[in-house]
Amino acid sequence: MSVRRVGRLLALGVLVLLALSACGGDGERALPGAWVDIAVMPDGGAQVDLRAAGRLRSDAEVRDLAGAVAREVFPGATGVQVRTVTSRGYPFARADVTGAYRPGRTVPLELDTARAWRRLAARGFDEGGVRLWLPSVPATVRPRPPGGTADVPEWTVGRGRPAPVVRVVMRPRPALWFGAAALLVLVVAGVVVSAAARRWYVAVSAAAVAIVCAVVTVSAAAGRQGDNLGVAGVLGGRALAVAAGAPLAGLPLGLVAVVLFVRALRRLLDDPAAAGSPYAARRPGRGGARTPGR
């Protein structure tokens, strides 16, 4: 396989990854009232987005209110920095919270949005909603009052519906990421063996193993198994970002493995004797050894 073809496949894999990362909305809402979006990050921090339509006269007021809401939701945070974010033409305030929780084997959280809504109600917001995003780790969510959905818990507040107090317990499992990383190693090994093998049946087998492991690796990475490392406190910062994205390298490597598999399979089927197949002797007339007595 030429270097140019490998380069094209790697570029295609990168483009696919970029397309996947760009898919989906960012949860924005252009609805009346105030919407509070809470995202618990895997590195011990959090983000609190405040989308407050009307009633506030400037972006500075929105930022001040977003900072106050974030401090109410995470009273033990070590720091809160607020900025204005524009997404799809819709501006809102985002509070970046540091020290929202302490990573560990078991992470309990209590997110009391009732205090935040009392502050919002004092500014004239009598309706809206709360949404919650958690890292991709095993967790239990117990809101009071009950509500929300399985994927993105969401509660409507106002008109007799109180703001929720959400108790969360996260139980990260770093072994899930290490399993995905081990599969990635098998993908790399399969591609290398398939490309270097002189016997085509070995190349076919190695490429097939690489393809299967690549599919499983990318599927596991799509579940953001790297979040388990962050919530457990194993990694943080840039190292966590690199580790979380590493299993996605299985996608371009899997494409290379597919090309190697097809090439090796063709050579094996065309001439099993020249390909070094141990089954060549069973196919007389194609270069295989003659059986005794003939």
The multimeric state of the shown protein is single chain
Strand order of the largest sheet: 3-4-2-1-6-8
Largest sheet: 6 strands, mixed
Unreliable segments (pLDDT under 50, ≥5 consecutive)?
A: 20-30, 277-283, 285-294
Query: How large is the share of residues in beta strands?
Result: 15-25%
Structural class: alpha+beta
Spatial shape: elongated
What is the H/E order? HEEHEEEHEEEEHHHHH
Helical content class: 40-55%
Please state the average pLDDT score. Answer: 79
Number of helices: 8
Instruction: Count every beta strand, where a strand is a DSSP E run of 2 or more residues.
Output: 9
* Span between termini: 40 Å
> Nearest-angstrom radius of gyration?
27 Å
How would you portray this structure in words?
With 294 residues, the chain is α+β, with helices and mostly antiparallel strands. The chain has eight helices and nine strands. The protein has helices at 3-22, 59-73, 113-122, 175-196, 200-222, 227-232, 237-245, 250-270, and strands spanning 34-40, 46-52, 79-87, 90-98, 107-112, 127-133, 139-144, 154-158, 165-170. It has a six-stranded mixed beta sheet, with helices on one face. Strands 5-9-7 form a three-stranded antiparallel beta sheet. A hairpin with a 2-residue loop joins β3 and β4. α4 runs antiparallel to α5 and α4 packs parallel to α8. It is elongated. The model is unreliable at 20-30, 277-283 and 285-294 (pLDDT under 50).
